Backbone:
């Protein structure tokens, strides 16, 4: 990685699109890039120049990214997440601005982006430099470091042998998925006031049958499948609500508010303990494999 930020120059005003700057870097940099050639998936570290990155008003030098289940799907070709190829992986990124055509951001500013089409429709955070859409860039709020932000921006899931660690972090009770028996009737005994589900599939179907009247289920993932088999009974008899969480499309103003709260009242008490691994670009394939087989725990950061 370059020791200092590469020299940049914006595109001439005579160019066809003056709203999106284009930079000429005097040095190349590394990125974990994903290709799809016909039915053949390939991914690995490549040397790039900034002009090869997705268009955007803000260029940052990446400090941290993270590994999400969705990243594992895209990095291995297991899931059809990317809408175009090639793209750099990584749905989260945090770093310092090295160049900006938007007056809201200046060189040296600490910023972050989560979701917002990264590693789906535009190049993501698995790159030593990233060019970003200014409309999605969040200034790092006071109370959080760039590392903290990426710990929060990463998702993980747990196996039974980690229950003790979860209790130490503050969980009151841990129940293995093998011990959950929902029953098959449209409505079973109402047990839970609400739920946050990152699994989908049979897990989500079962949850609809056991939520108490007027409880909510927030669904934010599909680690267990993308189908939902249920009836209307939980919704029209108990008034249960199924709430979709689509963070990638969250309005900018809401994103700013959420990050300010995560830096303050909502900041986890044991944030440092949540991060269990820190890896390099070269180590990403091994992380993907462990995550897809249920072997991950806590947050895994990609450090540059």
Residues:
């Amino acid at each position: 990685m370059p020791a200092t930020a590469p020299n940049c120059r914006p595109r001439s005003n005579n160019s066809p699109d003056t709203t999106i700057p284009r930079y000429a870097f005097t040095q190349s940099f590394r990125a974990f890039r994903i290709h799809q050639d016909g039915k053949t998936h390939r991914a690995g570290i490549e040397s790039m120049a900034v002009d090869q990155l997705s268009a955007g008003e803000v260029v940052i030098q990446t400090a941290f990214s993270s590994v999400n289940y969705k990243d594992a799907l895209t990095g291995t070709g297991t899931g059809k997440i990317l809408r175009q190829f090639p793209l750099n992986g990584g749905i989260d990124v945090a770093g310092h601005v090295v160049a900006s055509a938007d007056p809201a951001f200046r060189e040296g500013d600490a910023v972050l982006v989560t979701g917002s089409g990264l590693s789906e429709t535009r190049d993501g955070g698995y790159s030593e430099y990233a060019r970003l859409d200014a409309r999605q860039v969040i200034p790092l709020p006071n109370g959080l470091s760039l590392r903290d932000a990426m710990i929060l921006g990463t998702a993980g899931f747990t196996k039974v042998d980690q229950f003790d660690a979860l209790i130490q972090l503050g969980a009151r009770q841990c129940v293995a998925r093998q011990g959950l028996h929902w029953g098959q009737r449209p409505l079973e005994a109402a047990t839970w006031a609400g739920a946050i589900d990152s699994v989908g599939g049979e897990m989500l179907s079962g949850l609809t049958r056991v939520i108490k009247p007027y409880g909510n289920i927030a669904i934010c993932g599909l680690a267990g499948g993308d189908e939902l088999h249920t009836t209307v009974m939980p919704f029209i008899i108990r008034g249960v609500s199924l709430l979709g969480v689509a963070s990638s499309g969250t309005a900018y103003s809401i994103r700013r508010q959420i990050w300010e709260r995560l830096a303050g009242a909502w900041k986890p008490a044991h944030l440092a303990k949540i991060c269990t691994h820190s890896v390099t670009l070269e180590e990403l394939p091994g992380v993907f494999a462990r995550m897809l087989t249920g072997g991950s725990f806590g947050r895994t950061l990609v450090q540059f």
